[in-house]
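Below is a filled-in request sheet from our internal design queue. Each sheet records the structural input a requester submitted and the sequence that came back. We keep these sheets so that new team members can see what a complete request looks like end to end.

REQUESTER: design group, bay 2
PRIORITY: normal
MODE: inverse folding
CHAIN LENGTH: 100
BACKBONE (tokenized):
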């Protein structure tokens, strides 16, 4: 199931180290409609420095980097979320740490 997670920098660092994290809340779209998916992604972004789209069997369970499909970050406070591949997690961490 596709879920959207709001992650903080500590969770990102743990994922980059190969550890698993258990985010406090997972957001699930009301349907597979693109607008509902975007709404869930945006809600996750409000609950963390980075929003992550992940494929999980249990939305309340632990997450590994391999479970994450993409990372999303508001780079300019416009509300528009930039897309990053999981292979770019180090750059995403740098961006988040630099904005704080």
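RETURNED SEQUENCE:
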């Amino acid at each position: 199931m596709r879920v959207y997670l709001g992650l903080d920098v500590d969770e990102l660092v743990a994922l980059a180290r190969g550890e698993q994290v258990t985010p406090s809340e997972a957001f699930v779209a009301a349907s597979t409609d693109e607008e509902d998916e975007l709404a869930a992604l945006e809600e996750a972004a409000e609950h963390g420095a980075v929003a992550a789209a992940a494929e999980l069997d249990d939305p309340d369970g632990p997450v590994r980097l391999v479970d994450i499909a993409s990372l999303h970050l508001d780079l300019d406070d416009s509300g528009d979320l930039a897309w990053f591949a999981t292979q770019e997690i180090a750059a995403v961490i740098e961006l988040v740490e630099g904005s704080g």
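SHEET NOTES:
- The longest strand covers residues 2-7.
- Helices lie at 9-16, 34-45, 89-99.
FILED BY: M.R.
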